[in-house]
Write a structure and sequence with these properties.
Distance between the termini: 28 Å
Bound molecules: magnesium ion
Helix content: 25-40%
Number of helices: 12
Strand content: 15-25%
Number of strands: 17
CATH topology of the largest domain: TIM Barrel
CATH class of the largest domain: Alpha Beta
CATH architecture of the largest domain: Alpha-Beta Barrel
Strand order of the largest sheet: 7-8-9-10-11-12-13
Order of helices and strands: EEEEEHHHEEHEHEHEHEHEHHEHEEHEE
Number of domains: 2
CATH superfamily of the largest domain: Enolase-like C-terminal domain
Radius of gyration: 20 Å
Shape: globular
Length: 365
């Protein structure tokens, strides 16, 4: 098989409800999507949202990387193209992952074969700010089957704690709480937050309290925390996982396909986390169905804790002709089902597109 054509899209998928993380509010998700076609008619899709601050990459730099890599890949063997791209993951994790994941789907990576129907428990985010609305939201999520809730923090310690207490009192005994500060705490903030969460029941973990490069503060928080700490923004490489494993109090590592560098490297990183005695959490909350489906495939057999590949459930429109189904708080992965992209939805949400084929030079829209 040779790579026959690559189409790159920048898309904009508006969210049903704004999604607030410590330093940003998402109103839409705007990933790069790659469509790769093989010489035998095979098709593969990949995507990644580049969020500056989450990755060291810039949106424009990632788009340029994908354009150059796509142009260079036309007419080549996908296995050779994959080898070249995987060597560039350290420099361009999200951008390279977009094309790597598409090529891995094109070449039918084993981890993407769904031979038996599987249900993957999903985490659900709590959006509401007003206490009464928050109680209603928490009750509604639990009643519809979600058993793990995400509590964003890192905004204002006092308000973060008030919100945590409302959620914990409402959910009591019925759901695990995963708190994510998205790097939003100073060490002093984190100490005050920890003081306020002591005794709060059902907390599964505290995710990324301090800055991605501030290993010293994150290590200190982990050391004194009454709940396990998970690192997310700090973790890109296997060396980062090793470093985290050396710190007392770090119990979990959060991975996403877009920072691991596609399916194969994600599988290796998950195995590496287990080998270091830590537990993985997997999934991108700001990914569409393309990325969430691939992460859900990889989750099977490698992860036990609730998946965070729920970005697709936040968008108003869906990219799959048969949208992914969430049933009783779990993502239903049907045996034998291969995703098909709804071209009308893709085109309606595309803001820029580049096409590469052997016969024609790049076309821009
Ligand atoms: Mg996170």
């Amino acid at each position: 098989m040779k790579i026959d054509s690559i189409h790159l899209y920048r898309i904009s998928m508006p969210l049903e409800t704004p999604y607030a993380v410590s330093r940003k509010v998402f109103h839409e998700i705007t990933p790069v999507v790659a469509e790769v076609r093989g010489s035998g008619g095979e098709l593969g899709w990949g995507e990644a949202l580049i969020t500056p601050g989450y990755t060291h990459e810039s949106v424009e730099g990632g788009w340029d990387f994908c354009k150059h890599a796509a142009s260079a890949s036309i007419g080549t063997d996908p296995v050779a193209a994959l080898a070249i791209l995987r060597r560039q993951v350290d420099m361009h994790p999200c951008a390279a992952s977009t094309l790597i994941a598409a090529l891995e789907m094109l070449t039918a990576h084993d981890a993407l074969r769904v031979m038996e129907t599987t249900r993957i428990p999903l985490l659900a985010p709590c959006h509401a700010k007003d206490p009464e609305a928050l109680k209603d939201e928490v009750n509604g999520l639990i009643e519809s089957g979600f058993a793990t809730l995400k509590v964003k923090a890192g905004f204002d310690v006092g308000k973060d704690l008030a919100r945590l207490h409302t959620i914990a009192e409402t959910a009591r005994g019925r759901a695990a709480l995963r708190i994510d500060a998205n790097c939003g705490f100073s060490l002093d903030d984190a100490r005050r937050y920890l003081d306020g969460l002591r005794g709060v029941p059902d907390i599964e973990l505290l995710e990324q309290p301090c800055g991605s490069q501030d290993w010293e503060s994150n290590a200190e928080v982990a050391r004194i925390s009454p709940v396990p700490v998970m690192l997310d923004e700090s973790i890109y490489s296997l060396a980062d996982i090793d470093r985290a494993a050396s710190l007392p109090g770090i119990g979990f590592i959060k991975l996403k396909m877009k920072k691991a560098g596609g399916v194969e490297r994600l599988c290796q990183a998950l195995d590496h986390i287990h080998a270091r005695g830590l537990l993985p959490v997997l999934g991108d909350g700001v990914s569409t169905e393309i990325g969430c489906w691939a992460e859900a495939c990889v989750w099977r057999g490698r992860v036990r804790h609730a998946g965070e590949m729920n970005g697709f459930a936040k968008t108003r429109a869906r990219l799959f002709e048969d949208p992914l189904i969430v049933e009783h708080g779990s993502l239903l992965m049907d045996a034998g089902r291969t995703p098909v992209i709804d071209r009308a939805v893709l085109n309606a949400h595309s803001v820029e597109r580049e096409s590469y084929t052997p016969a024609r030079s790049c076309q821009t829209r």
